[in-house]
Specification:
seven-stranded mixed β-sheet, alpha/beta, 246 residues
Length: 246
């Protein structure tokens, strides 16, 4: 998939069932998510995330945050309760439209359509915290690596990022992405589908180091329901506090 394909695919998915596409609970398929319940899951997730950071002795400044792959703003809204300003970023036109419509923190939470293969429209060193969960895994590897490279550029000195990717295991690791995409397009008769893409976690470590960052923690945990062929990689990283050359 190229960026145009990704934009089209996720715009169609967001038009059809935007909350379920973010949290694919079988019982909620068909626009059955209750809005309050849906956003409550985001608040709970962010509270747990910051409890973990506190337990690890990781301090995060509360200036500006970035929610990458924001969807309709489930986590952006929760972050807006903690930060002075939060930017939610997504590749899908329909997701951004829905996020703006559901925005509970106007002026404090802002949403941006980013239908490009990097984050070049965002200024360097702006963000104290970057968060991304169940988003990068749906983006082809080359773009994932571009975005993570830009995470490092966007972080302020000493800034923190927490993000999740996946890598393939066993037989799935032997099948090229283009072949899987072709099969899914055939299976879904050309309609939008939810793709999955893995990245070698060692490559992510290299990107972080090249971006003047440190991997504070890397957890590799089973991907629930797909344990034999997928694994989650959850990274906690920090940008160096050294001033950068002009």
């Amino acid at each position: 998939m190229n960026i145009k394909d990704i934009n089209k695919n996720w715009t169609e998915l967001g038009d059809d069932d935007p909350m379920w596409v973010v949290l694919t609970d079988p019982a909620k398929k068909g626009n059955r998510w209750n809005e309050e319940e849906f956003f409550a899951t985001g608040k709970e997730e962010i509270e747990k995330q910051f409890a973990k950071l506190d337990a690890q002795g990781v301090s995060v400044r509360n200036g500006k945050a970035l929610d990458f792959g924001c969807g309709v703003g489930r986590l952006t809204q929760a972050l807006a309760a903690r930060f002075e300003h939060v930017d939610g970023v997504d590749v899908s036109d329909s997701m951004i439209r829905n996020a703006e419509k559901l925005n509970r923190f106007p002026g404090r939470a802002e949403y941006h359509l980013n239908a490009r293969g990097d984050l070049g429209s965002f200024a360097s060193g702006e963000y104290d915290f970057i968060y991304s969960i169940i988003a990068l895994q749906h983006i082809p590897p080359a773009f994932q690596k571009n975005y993570i490279t830009d995470f490092m550029r966007l972080l302020s000195p000493g800034g923190i990022a927490s993000f999740q990717t996946i890598h393939f295991k066993g037989w799935r690791n032997l099948i090229p992405d283009w072949l899987v995409d072709s099969y899914r397009k055939f299976k879904h008769k050309g309609k939008a589908f939810i793709p999955m893409y893995g990245v070698n976690p060692g490559q992510i470590h290299q990107i972080v180091v090249r971006g003047d960052g440190t991997v504070l923690k890397h957890d590799c945990v089973p991907y629930s329901g797909f344990e034999t062929r997928l694994a989650n990689d959850i990274f906690l990283i920090q940008k160096s506090s050294r001033p950068q050359p002009d």
